[in-house]
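Shape is hard to put into words, and the shape of a protein is harder than most. The fold becomes a row of whole numbers, each drawn from a learned catalogue of backbone shapes. The outcome of that step, for a single protein, is printed below.
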Amino acid sequence: MIQTLKLQKIGNSVGVTFSKELLEKLNLSEGDTLFITETEHGFQLSAYNPEFEKAMAIYHEGSKKFHHALQELAK
């Protein structure tokens, strides 16, 4: 799927307007945050936060290592 989005002046800023159909397809709504990631093929726009994924990977490693201690703290 290729969609063209046009940049528009909105007050003192520039923004992009998404059609209702595109928002539904992307499961996005007003107020959601989008992330721009540079890739080898250009830029990727996504609701996925790659920094959050890194943080969760670190958490999972720590939770495995300190599983018993975390269980005791939860009591």
About this structure: The helical segments are 20-26, 50-65, 67-74. The first helix runs from residue 20 to 26. The mean pLDDT is 84.
